[in-house]
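Inputs:
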Amino acid sequence: MAEAIVVDDLVKTYPDVQAVDHVSFRVPAGTVFAFLGPNGAGKTTTTEILEGLRARTGGAVEVLGLDPWSEGRPLHRQIGVIPQDFRFFEKIRPREAIEYYGTLFGTRPDPAALLARVQLTDKAESRFDTLSGGQKQKLGLALSLVNDPKVCFLDEPTTGLDPQARRGIWEVIRGLRREGRTVFLTTHYLEEAEILADRVAIIHHGRIVADGSPAEIIQRLGGPARLRIDAGEDVASFLRARFPNEIHWQAGRVEIVLQTREDAIAILDALRASGLAWVSFSTERDTLEDVFVRLVGQMDDGVLKSANGRAPEVPA
Amino acid sequence: MNGARILADLKVTARGYLRNPIALFFSLVFPLILILLFGLIFAGSGSGPVTLYVQNFDHAANGTATPFSQAFLSDLNRTNLVSVDLVSPSVGNLSTWLGQNNNPVGLVIPAGFQASFLAHRPVNVTLFTNPQAASAAGSAYGAVAGVLNYLNLAAANGTAILGTTQYNVGSTIFTYIDYLVPGLIGFSILTSPMFSMVDVTSTYRKDGIFRQLSLTPLTRDEWLASRVLWYTMLTFLSAAIMLGFGVVVFGAHVILNVWLLPFLFAGPLLFVSLGMVAGSIARTPESAAVIGNVITFPMMFLAGTFFPVSDFGPGLQVVAKLLPLYYVIDGMNQAMLFQNFGRAFGDLLVVLGFAAVLFAAAVYLFRWKGE
């Protein structure tokens, strides 16, 4: 599969800070790539370099085979961008905005179809300054599609949307992927990244600290699976006496850290044979959010700092 | 430069403007209100006749004014310097009455005025003037003294040897409204682009709209061209409205000629550029508004918008001549009132010079992309 985005050893330095510190990653064409990180990690700077809005200090960057800074104009005809907190001309109507973008790009978009795609049909003739935050964001998404882009940069496209609208945007993103477009997604919602993304990169202090599919990252960096049983403390005592696993009891719930999948079957068999009372059970794994919070937290606490004081890059 | 993109941006800008009541008010309605207010306030000022309040005590036996005093007042009216308005002798002391009614000039014709004239006995009329209204006082004195001299000569059966032939300077006798029309066109040329561009430049930057536009094929030059075109169109519309209003409502004596056109093109370019410079150097829209006001308001009052710069003191005249708007307004005055096209051309060169420097500064300071 060809690569839509190639970033090699990217560096961006400001007078007082190194915002991006030797970052490398690749985004295969036709995939959804989620770029995650806490505020100030270097996400926006990296994204703006990819969009051709900022010059880089060092390294190599290609989007669709073009250098975003020196070949911005031809690149911009092939990409769509929606910034976070999208703002536009206050008095324009969504239909007019799409027509305006169509003229700028020299395309003939169908405003009704585009607005339907982002669920904004009923606001086609409303003025921008009367739209809610979510509706403005939807218009931004519609505008980013006017030029039929090969790569879509979506910077926190669902921030501020209600759950139903958010799921609507997820459907649009899935649709973009189905159409073979590449989506570069920046989001604060880890659940969103886990659901939508083929690959994820986590950036912190300007460096990539994790890179891979959500499942790979969880597998590699997440904690072990856990069996949870809603039961009394007597069940916890019973299991501690028979199994070597780490077992906790708190507020009516027993939590057993599983070393293998078979542990769960053996524990449940023993519990059934004991005749002790229990209410329900479930198994749980770390989510991408759990991994993210733990990883970023450990780095901020210094747990993951290497001897030279730089954060380690977790191999994919 | 792509014409279709410029036109598309122009259309969006025009729609935004027409849907914004505040922008429309300040661009088109506010100058009209100003011309109406100033026109009404200063109607009759300038070189029009001064109202001369006259108390006539020279009555015939039947109680009516004597024929000679009536002829004297008719002669005063014919000078066109004064317009006689009779005040009843019952109001008492005329000087006191003038002061109480804030009227600057008055005349008392004494009893026996006609009889004294016919008997060739010296008699004086009394003229009251207010030193703070020197112009009105001068007109009234000139009219009264001139008519009295004529009557004295007639009484002596003399013939005037020395005389005067009067010609008007320029096309006509200019009144305040004549100066106000070009001044308020200059006001529109200044305020519409300045206030709007200061706001747009700073707000679009803060809201990331420039960043968004930079990701489309629209170039910075095309956006700038669209703005200059829009404000030029707005200036033409505003000038047409004010000229029409000034001429139809107040009878302004302005002469339309092609020399007005370059000022209507160069003026918006100048102030679009100045607005962009102000908006670009400001860190926030709030500070941009302050910078815009600091530049605009002194220029509005000192460049001859509301009052001729020649009425200012020497120091303020020097300050006025440092302001670009002065040359826009003076150029239009020279073109439309005095038809002094040489001086209008000189003003135009200065306006173009300011426009070139400010446009270069605006292009240098204006950030289209994020960096």
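DSSP finds eleven helices and 13 strands in chain A. Flag for discussion at group meeting.
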